[in-house]
């Protein structure tokens, strides 16, 4: 069939000017579609290629324009709408053009086609890397013509590099699938007509509302909320994760979209916050907040896609600084630009949570769901149905706290604290109207209420209320009451620390530490923390613990050291809360020293008597020692998943036990020679079944440092290990010990002493992905090295963990024999970007002779990376230093490695010139490797 150029031009709709706010000149898009027509037959392959080339260029121009405008005005919803508008115009034109490529020679009633946008695209908003979801709708069956046009459109979109989700169905098939599949139902809920036979689309909408939606609102709501809960469980149950998922995470876009869906489905009105206002589920002010949150999240998500060039939805550390820059955030004293941006993000996430809670609670109240469900924030409470019970100015109905009248807080502002105390005592949820009234009444919380003795008494009661404490404090925080009542806490609400160590915002971390303490007090952590559980039952005044944990990071985000500033805040807040002078001073001391025990345990040699003596001077009493241990454990456990492990617990127990002996007059009074003699005698007694000559030979193998630094059980294990190696002529022997409770694995090596042995061990671990947390190095009197490295556990099954350790040991043996080249292996592992690349930490090398009586202590703090310990130990060996022990601590991206060293004559390093050289060489290897890594990443 021959078609003239005039007929071709009149057959395709090129009036792109009808699209509002198209991010490209309409004439430009018309030109792209008009160009192939000029060539003649649109079905020719050359015409299709020409069209595809033009569309690729137009798509690039449109995206560039949207990106430029987004960076200029920061309006996320507008950017998403403009992208959607562009694809609307392009798809409509492609459908029209497809009709030219495959003309229907004798069209019948079956030759009808409707194209609709569904899913997220159906809402008229589209992120740069999002899928384009389309529904190709046929009247009662597809025909060769409709299939050809559909395939033409899809192949063009795929060839443009777009991700297209599509369905090709009749109206009846669509209705049947919507009944069976909630995902299809949700997609059709947001269907939007693009082009084609509009009567087909109207038929779909009418039947969808009558045959699918009608009478099924409770089922839909229950499904969407269950889907939300499942998504949160998969992505992360907290909205305050420091690398949030913008789309699927708690407090993210999907939570707002769930409200869209509920409003549209239940009330069969247009999508968006307006539907919820019309239904009375949100107020006008809450709807404005809804739109504000939506716009911010769209801006973040669009920027993410533009920066990465893909549909990246997680706001990872390496992307956060660039997002902050593009969104115009700047540095303030104590806070980086990225931290200010992330604080804004988490405040928005909190607002999304508030809106979700309000809508869901209101739906419960209206019994729109099959059965009432307790607010997710209070799901740990014990739910009980009950008749109305009155509590002062409040009453409880169906386990929901409600106010008697709207003047309850105006008459008595103390009620703003009292209502939470009732919630904590009775495990009550809040009625949504009460939450709204609390939020509206925040202006009543001023200096008078902050200083009110009764309000502070009630707050202290809430803080120490036990297992409900965490839930109620989080509710106080999310309603804004906690930050207003305690302004010092208000400063750190939604504050994010730009590091890989902390998994949550500062306020969420503080609340979680209190929850950990409450769980500890209940006895439910007795198996994991037997020592702390025992102490909790012995401590008569637990108030100081709860207050100290609430305040221990209260001064984060300030220029001054947060421990020192926090102690000062504690001395100010303590009396206000009603603490005695002694309680206040104890709280201030705990806040100031809350990192001391952790740092000492992880980065100091606990077998060195000076370490214990210095720590005992800080603690001074066994009562403080117990309190500090509990604060330290709760703090570490609340940092995030995987941070606490049995190895850290063992280090803290060792530090506690050794310090207690000092404070109670134990082994501090025993002379060094006497301690050595006692250790030798105890081991001799444990080896009583050995022949006398063999036992004495073993006892003579070790130098004094071994007896002072090694536990008896380890001495026995080493003795058996040495005995199994025979007469000492074997060039290499190893032993693997899997320690379940501590979640670590020990690899002990017995081999002729070698100045680079520890470096080779560190390199082998790095090459195999094993993370070293500690190392003990001993030399025997017959010239062998008895070295033990402790690595973090990687596998649940002991057999798997043992096999991995055996591979590490085998690699160490091969490296010693010169059969493998570790630098090459490490170079391969370092290829490609790593999370640490997003951070910069200036290397800090400290050399201290006051921390040990026998050793010089070198402490190195720097950015962690693969092979760091290998590089450091190699340089230390090159500097002719002998490492007695190494203590490896990693706090996210920050490594703190501590080495106890002497010169080759066993003396401390006292010469200033030599100390300067050591410091210079170590900094050089750190900075040099960092530069190499940056160059590799850039290439």
Fold and architecture overview:
The chain is α+β, with helices and mostly antiparallel strands. The protein has 6 domains: 5-213, Beta Polymerase, domain 2 (2-Layer Sandwich); 217-373, Nucleotidyltransferases  domain 2 (Four Helix Bundle (Hemerythrin (Met), subunit A)), CATH 1.20.120; 377-485, Hydrophobic Seed Protein (Orthogonal Bundle), CATH 1.10.110; 486-669, no CATH class; 672-713, no CATH class; 714-938, no CATH class. Strands 9-10-12-11-15-16-14-13 form an 8-stranded antiparallel β-sheet, covered by helices on one side. Strands 3-2-1-4 form a 4-stranded mixed β-sheet, sandwiched between helices. A 4-stranded mixed β-sheet has the order 5-6-7-8. Helix 4 packs across helix 13 (284-308) and helix 30 packs across helix 32. It starts with a helix and ends with a helix. Residues 746-825, 857-938 form the ACT domain. GO terms for molecular function: [protein-PII] uridylyltransferase activity; phosphoric diester hydrolase activity. InterPro entries: ACT-like_dom_sf (IPR045865), ACT_dom (IPR002912), HD/PDEase_dom (IPR003607), HD_domain (IPR006674), NT_sf (IPR043519), PII_UdlTrfase/GS_AdlTrfase (IPR013546), Polymerase_NTP_transf_dom (IPR002934), UTase/UR (IPR010043). This is Bifunctional uridylyltransferase/uridylyl-removing enzyme. Keywords: Hydrolase, Magnesium, Multifunctional enzyme, Nucleotidyltransferase, Repeat, Transferase.
């Amino acid at each position: 069939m021959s078609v003239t150029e005039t007929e071709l031009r009149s057959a395709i709709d090129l009036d792109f000017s009808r699209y509002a706010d198209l991010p490209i000149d309409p004439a430009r898009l018309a030109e792209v579609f008009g160009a192939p027509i000029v060539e003649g037959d649109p079905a020719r392959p050359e015409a299709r290629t020409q069209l595809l080339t033009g569309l690729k260029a137009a798509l690039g121009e449109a995206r560039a324009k949207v990106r430029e405008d987004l960076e200029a005005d920061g309006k996320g919803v507008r950017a998403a709408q403009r992208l959607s508008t562009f694809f609307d115009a392009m798809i409509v034109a492609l459908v029209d053009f497809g009709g030219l490529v495959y003309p229907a020679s004798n069209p019948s009633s079956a030759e009808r086609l409707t194209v609709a946008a569904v899913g997220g695209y159906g809402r008229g908003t589209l992120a740069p890397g999002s899928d384009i979801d389309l529904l190709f709708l046929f009247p009662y069956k597809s025909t060769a013509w409709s299939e050809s046009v559909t395939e033409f459109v899809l192949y063009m979109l795929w060839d443009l590099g777009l991700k297209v989700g599509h369905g090709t169905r009749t109206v009846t098939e669509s209705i049947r699938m919507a009944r069976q599949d909630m995902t299809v139902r949700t997609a059709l809920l947001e269907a939007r007509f693009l082009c084609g036979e509009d009567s087909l689309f109207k038929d779909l909408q009418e039947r969808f509302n009558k045959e699918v939606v009608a009478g099924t609102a409770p089922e839909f709501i229950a499904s969407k909320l269950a889907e939300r809960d499942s998504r949160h469980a998969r992505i992360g149950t907290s909205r305050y994760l420091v690398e949030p998922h913008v789309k699927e995470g708690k407090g993210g876009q999907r939570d707002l979209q769930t409200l869209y869906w509920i409003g549209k489905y239940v009330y069969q009105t247009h999508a968006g916050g307006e539907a919820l206002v019309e239904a009375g589920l949100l107020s006008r002010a809450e709807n404005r907040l809804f739109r504000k949150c939506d716009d911010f999240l769209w801006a973040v998500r669009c920027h993410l896609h533009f920066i990465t060039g893909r549909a990246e939805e997680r706001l990872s550390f390496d992307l956060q600084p660039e997002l902050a820059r593009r969104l115009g955030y700047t540095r303030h004293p104590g806070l980086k630009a990225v931290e200010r941006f992330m604080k804004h993000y988490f405040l928005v996430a909190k607002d999304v949570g508030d809106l979700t809670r309000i809508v869901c609670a209101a739906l419960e109240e209206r019994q729109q769901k099959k059965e009432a469900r307790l607010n997710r924030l209070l799901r740990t409470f014990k739910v009980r149905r009950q008749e109305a019970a009155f509590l002062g100015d409040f009453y409880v109905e169906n386990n929901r706290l409600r106010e008697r009248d709207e003047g309850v807080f105006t008459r008595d502002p103390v009620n703003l604290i009292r209502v939470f105390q009732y919630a904590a005592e009775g495990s009550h949820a809040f009625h949504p109207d009460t939450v709204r009234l609390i939020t509206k009444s925040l202006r009543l919380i001023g200096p008078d209420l902050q200083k009110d003795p009764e309000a502070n008494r009630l707050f202290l009661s809430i803080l120490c209320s036990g297992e409900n404490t965490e839930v109620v404090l989080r509710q106080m925080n999310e309603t804004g009451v906690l930050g207003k009542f305690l302004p010092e806490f208000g400063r750190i609400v939604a504050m994010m620390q730009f590091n890989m160590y902390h998994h949550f915002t500062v306020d969420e971390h503080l609340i979680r530490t209190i929850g950990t303490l409450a769980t500890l007090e209940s006895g439910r952590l007795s198996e994991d923390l037997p020592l702390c559980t025992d102490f909790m039952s012995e401590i008569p005044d637990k108030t100081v613990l709860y207050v100290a944990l609430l305040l221990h990071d209260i001064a984060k985000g300030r220029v001054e050291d947060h421990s020192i500033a926090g102690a000062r805040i504690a001395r100010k807040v303590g009396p206000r809360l009603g603490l005695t002078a002694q309680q206040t001073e104890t709280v201030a001391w705990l806040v100031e020293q809350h990192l001391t025990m952790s740092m000492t345990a992880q980065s100091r040699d606990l077998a060195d008597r000076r370490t214990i003596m210095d720590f005992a001077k800080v603690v001074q009493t066994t009562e403080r020692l117990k309190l500090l241990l509990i604060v330290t454990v709760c703090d570490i456990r609340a940092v995030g998943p995987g941070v606490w492990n049995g190895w850290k617990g063992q280090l803290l127990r060792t530090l506690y036990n050794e310090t207690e002996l000092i404070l109670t007059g134990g082994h501090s009074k025993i002379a060094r020679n006497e301690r050595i003699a006692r250790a030798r005698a105890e081991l001799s007694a444990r080896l009583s079944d050995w022949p006398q000559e063999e036992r004495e030979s073993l006892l003579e193998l070790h130098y004094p440092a071994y007896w002072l630094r090694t536990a008896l059980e380890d001495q026995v294990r080493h003795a058996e290990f040495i005995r199994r190696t025979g007469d000492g002529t074997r060039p290499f022997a190893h032993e693997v010990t899997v320690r379940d409770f501590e979640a670590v694995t020990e690899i002990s090596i017995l081999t002729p002493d070698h100045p680079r042995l520890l470096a080779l061990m560190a390199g082998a671990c790095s090459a195999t992905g094993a993370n070293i947390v500690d190392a003990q190095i001993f030399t025997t009197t017959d010239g062998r090295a008895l070295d033990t490295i402790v690595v973090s556990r990687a596998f649940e099954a002991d057999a798997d963990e043992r096999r991995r350790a055996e591979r590490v040991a085998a690699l160490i043996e091969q490296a010693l024999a010169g059969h493998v080249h570790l630098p090459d292996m490490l170079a391969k592992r370092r290829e490609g970007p790593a999370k640490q690349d997003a951070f910069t930490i200036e290397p800090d090398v400290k050399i201290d002779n006051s921390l040990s009586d026998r050793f010089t202590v070198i402490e190195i703090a720097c950015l962690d990376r693969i092979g760091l310990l290998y590089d450091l130990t190699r340089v230390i060996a090159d500097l002719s230093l002998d490492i007695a022990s190494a203590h490896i601590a990693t706090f996210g991206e920050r490594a703190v490695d501590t080495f106890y060293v002497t010169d080759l004559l066993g003396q401390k390093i006292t010469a200033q010139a030599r100390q300067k050289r050591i410091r210079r060489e170590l900094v050089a290897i750190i900075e040099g490797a960092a530069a190499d890594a940056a160059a590799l990443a850039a290439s």
